[in-house]
Specification:
- With about 100 residues, this protein is an all-alpha fold.
- The chain has one domain.
- The chain is elongated.
- The relative contact order is 0.14.
């Protein structure tokens, strides 16, 4: 498994996330959770030439969770959604702010 520099909270540093596959690539968004999703897609594309193989087991690179590229992508999206929901729950809406 590759060694990465980790942030203080144990995450792979954003600049170390793979953003390129063989035939396509992505630019980082600056939002860690979204960049992990893009990186999962790029890493899947790098691991397998065809998307039909994304359900095959392969080595689990950091920071992804799951046995298959399909799981890496889905789990990254689930984690991004959970972070989004936590942030949304912690931040009062405009309506809630006006009602105080």
């Amino acid at each position: 498994m590759n060694e990465f520099n980790l942030s203080k909270d144990g995450r792979v540093m954003s600049e170390e996330l793979r953003m390129s596959a063989y035939y396509y690539g992505f630019e980082p968004t600056g939002v860690y959770e979204i960049d992990v999703i893009l990186s999962a897609v790029a890493t899947a594309g790098r691991a397998f030439h065809y998307t039909e193989n994304w359900q095959e087991d392969c080595a689990q690179p950091r920071p992804f969770k799951g046995k298959t590229p399909e799981e890496w992508i889905q789990n990254a999206a689930n984690e991004a959604a959970a972070v989004w929901n936590r942030r949304h729950d912690e931040t009062p809406s405009e309506f809630e702010r006006c009602m105080k």
